[in-house]
């Protein structure tokens, strides 16, 4: 899963990206009938997360297809 976070700083983008990823993973497992107690935590497992500063490896089409998440907003994942 990849997305852009619009945030005032790289640190805040990373922090909010982890929150969005946590909510995304939780919503996917819950949609499959998992209980809250059994849903794995993205943050607790410290899954991969980073800020890409060199976007030259991506095509313009790739970049245009990535969701943009404003800092503080949790997106509606059915649109992803």
Question: What features would you describe in this structure?
Answer:
The relative contact order is 0.26. This protein is mainly alpha-helical and 80 residues long. The protein is built from 3 helices and 2 strands; from the N terminus they run βαααβ. Strands 1-2 form a two-stranded parallel ribbon. The longest helix has 22 residues, at 10-31.
Identify the notable features of this structure and list them briefly.
two-stranded parallel sheet, mainly alpha, 80 residues
Portion in strands: 5-15%
Rounded Rg: 14 Å
Put simply, the count of helices is: 3
C-alpha end-to-end distance? 9 Å
Helical residues, percent:
40-55%
Brief synopsis:
With 80 residues, the chain is mostly helical.
